[in-house]
Amino acid sequence: MPLKPLDIVNGTFGLLFVGISIILGVIIVLKYFKTKDKNFLLVGFTWIFLISGWYGTSASFLVALFTGGDGLSLEMILLLNFIPLPIALLLWSIAFSNFLLKDKRFLFLLGNAIYVIIFYMVFFYFIFTDPNLIAEKISPVDTAARSLVLAVFLVIFIVIFFVTGVKFALETMKIGDPETKLKGKLLLIAFPSFCVGGFLDASIPTTALTLIIFRLILILSAVLFYGAFVLPNWLKRIFLK
Hints:
Blueprint: H1 5-35, H2 38-50, H3 55-67, H4 74-82, H5 85-99, H6 105-129, E1 135-139, E2 142-145, H7 148-173, H8 178-203, H9 208-230, H10 233-239
Antiparallel strand pairs: 1-2
Helix pairs in contact: 1-2, 1-3, 1-9, 2-5, 2-9, 3-4, 5-6, 5-7, 7-8, 8-9
C-alpha cells in the first residue's frame, strides 16, 4: 500500500497539526511551574489528549514514509487515536467545573466519567472481537469509520466539548479586565473551530484542498486555545493596543 500524493498531503498536514498542538499544549502545561495553578496542567494536557484522533494516522504516515510499507496496523492506529481521547474529556471536565461549577460539580463529573467508562467498554469490545467493525484502513494515513455506535459516542463528545467550551468562553468575556475579555474571545473561536474542523475532517470526502483547509482550521484552533490560556505578548500587541 504505497503512499500516494494525497496520502502525503494528508500525512504532512496531520503531522503538522499534531506537532504544533503538542508543542503548544506543553507550553500551557509549563505555565503551571510559574503560577502553581493546576488548571494549566488540566487544560494543557486536555489539548494534548484532545488531538489524539490524529495520533494514529500521523504515526502511521511516518512509519510508511521511512519504511515504504503500509504503516501501522489498524489496531495500533485505533489505539493511538482513541485511548487518550476520553481522558481529554475528563481533564477538561475537571477544569471546567473548577472555573464555573459549584453545586452541580459532582453530578457533572460523574456523568462524564460514566460516559467515558461506557465508551472504553464499547471500544475495547470491538478491538478484541473485530477492529474492522470500528473502521477500515483505506491507506497508510486514512481510515473510514464503520461503527455507528462509536460514531454516536464521538458526536456526543464533540457536543459536550463545544457546549462547555462556548459556555466557558462567554463567561470569561463577562469579566471586565481587557486581557481576560480577549481570552474569552479567543476561546469563543477556538472551541467551535476545533469542533467544526474535526467534524468536517472526519466526515467530508477527502481531497487535497479539503484536507488543507480543514487542517488549517484545526491548527488555528490550537493557536487560539494556546493564546487564550497563555496570552503571549505578541497577541497582546495585536489585539490590545
